[in-house]
UniProtKB/TrEMBL annotation:
Cross-referenced Gene3D superfamilies: 1.10.1660.10, P-loop containing nucleotide triphosphate hydrolases
TM ranges: none
Protein name: Chromosome partitioning protein
Residues of the AAA domain: 77-274
């Protein structure tokens, strides 16, 4: 994928540091950064360069984030149109920029997350060859192919994942319409065995402990599911497998009924399986100048969801839609690193890391 390079100031914004520090890290880590062919020979950072810098900085002994534990989280909202997939792509990207090895798994048949990272699940091998597109950009496998007993056969994680920003950026398990076969398989197993709802939880547990050679996820700090806005068996299984459920709400059209529905699902899980993910609510499309939005905020924070509410909210912005024009493979934090939206997304992601107890702190500007 051909992308516009970043100048040093943008690289510094993405890494939360200064331009001088970025230059020093490039020399210290020996990272190969291109330069302009004429003029001042300005350094031009590829997106891969950015994540490589983030990786080396995080693994430098005195700055290593030292995650307290591996965390599994699901982005889920019962309502569509709340920005769930947009937040998932940006949070996954920011986690990697903070030096955490992140695996994002698309569990939505519509594959919007997959598309947001530049992969078209409808693209065939023949079409790719005709268009001169690299075979690596074809979606051949999805999360179902990683699951034991999947009817169409099983592949390894390394065969399924995509690396849109190189080795040190977020890794993606893409989705396509065939993912519905996994839902059908889980539904069938549920009728045969009540504990089938724990299929994905067992898969995650064995993957984290290296017991499953097909699904070894032991190297990742964060596994982030992006679940469809529906109560299907895949979503239910992902929630049961997760430590946290991150639920975006639209501050323009907050639905108490939708949040009550999610709470009832979590309560049901606790009753039946004695486990449920911790709820974290993220406010999106927030406009402090609108009376309705402020009223919604007060209703949430003063009600039973007060402890679940994330203090950092994301305001409505045209940056989300602008980032899709010609740069659909880049999340907003990469396409508009200096924007207010990127700043708010980073603040929310940093607070999420603290709430999930992955690290007590994130890299600050130095």
């Amino acid at each position: 994928m051909s992308r516009k390079p970043f100048k040093v100031q943008a690289a510094a914004q993405l890494l939360g540091t200064t331009s001088d520090t970025v230059r020093r890290m490039v020399d210290e880590f020996g990272i190969d950064v291109a330069r302009q062919e004429s003029g001042t020979k300005t350094r031009l950072f590829s997106v891969e360069n950015i994540f490589e810098l983030a990786h080396y900085r995080a693994n430098r002994r005195k700055e290593k984030p030292a995650p307290k534990k591996q965390v599994v989280a699901t982005m889920y909202a019962p309502n569509s149109g709340v920005g769930k997939t947009t937040l998932a792509s940006n949070f996954g990207t920011i986690f990697s920029l903070r030096g955490f090895k992140t695996l994002v798994i698309d569990l939505d048949f519509q594959a919007n997350l997959t598309l947001s990272f530049g992969y078209d699940p409808a693209l065939t091998a023949a079409e790719a060859i005709e268009a001169g597109i690299s075979p690596s950009e074809i979606v051949e496998h999805h999360f179902g192919n990683l699951t034991p007993n999947y009817p169409l056969g099983r592949v390894t994680l390394q065969e399924a994942i995509k690396k849109p920003f190189g080795e040190y950026g977020p890794h993606i398990v893409p989705a396509d319409l065939n993912l519905d076969r996994l839902d059908a398989m889980l539904m069938h197993e549920m009728f045969v065995n009540r504990n089938a709802d724990l299929t994905l939880a067992r898969l995650i547990k064995e993957g984290l402990s290296k017991k499953d050679q097909y699904f070894d996820i032991s190297e990742y700090d964060i596994i982030l599911f992006d679940a469809a806005p529906a109560n299907n068996r895949i979503t239910y299984g992902a929630l049961l497998a997760s430590d946290h459920v991150i639920s975006p709400v639209s501050m323009e059209k907050f639905s108490p009924k939708g949040m009550f529905y999610l709470s009832s699902i979590l309560a049901e899980m606790q009753d039946q399986f004695e486990r449920s993910p911790d709820l974290i609510i993220v406010g999106n499309f927030f406009d402090p100048n609108r009376v309705r939005a402020m009223g919604q905020l007060m209703a949430i924070t003063q009600a039973s969801y007060k402890d679940a509410w994330l203090d950092s909210s994301i305001r409505r912005s045209e940056d989300f839609s602008k980032a899709l024009i010609g740069e659909s493979e880049l999340p907003v934090v990469l396409s508009k690193p200096g924007s207010q939206t990127a700043t708010e997304l980073c603040a929310s992601a940093n607070e999420l890391l603290e709430r999930m107890e992955i690290s007590k702190s994130c890299p600050n500007r130095t």
